[in-house]
Amino acid sequence: MNETAAKRLVFAMLDADGDGVVSKDEYFARTERVTLATGRTEDDPLVVTARTAGARAWAAMDANGDGGVTFDEYAAWAGAEAFDTVCEPVLAALFDLADTDEDGALSLPEFTALRTALGNPVDNVKAAFDALDADGDGRVGRDDYVASIRAHITGEASPAGEALYSRGR
User: Where do the domains of the chain lie?
Assistant: First the structure.
């Protein structure tokens, strides 16, 4: 999959109402949904970390400060540098929220809670989990998870990323 196509899939997930603009509310709802899905409290340090990382990411994405990000703005911003400096901390923080047993990896139920809260169709979640669980131990590590999304957004081969961001399978 090429980089533009990969970005379109991610953008479509972020644009929850499908109006062609990712609003601040849509973007921040991601952390709130993961917080609810994992039963964490508002004052949990991991929730605070995820919100702080999300605020930094939003400020970078919405560079003109108009409260919305179009696909063209997103496509111009998203890439390896933005991922490494802005997106990775957000994804890692959301991963940590979902890692309810704090073992540094997600089981299928934890992974499912995370990815469905982020808007993936449930059918895609199992395929992505299986692609990430290369050794078949029933766990997905944080580094592998983040690397798979980075590979997807930069247009590299990422079966897990393709599963996560495609519309229903």
Answer: 3-165
Write out pLDDT tens, residues 17-30: 999 999 999 999 99
Is 56 within 8 Å of 89 (Cβ atoms)?
yes
Is residue 169 pLDDT above 60, yes or no? no
CB-based contact 168:124 (threshold 8 Å)? yes
pLDDT tens digits, 51-68: 999 999 999 999 899 999
- Residue 92 has φ and ψ, to the nearest 5°, of -65, -40
- Rounded Cα distance between 132 and 118, Å, is 17
DSSP state of 2: -
Query: 3-165 adopts what CATH topology?
Result: Recoverin; domain 1 (1.10.238)
Rg, the chain, Cα only: 15
Between 169 and 165, name the one with better pLDDT: 165
Q: Helices in 1-103 by DSSP H: which ranges?
A: 3-14, 24-38, 45-61, 71-77, 80-82, 88-98
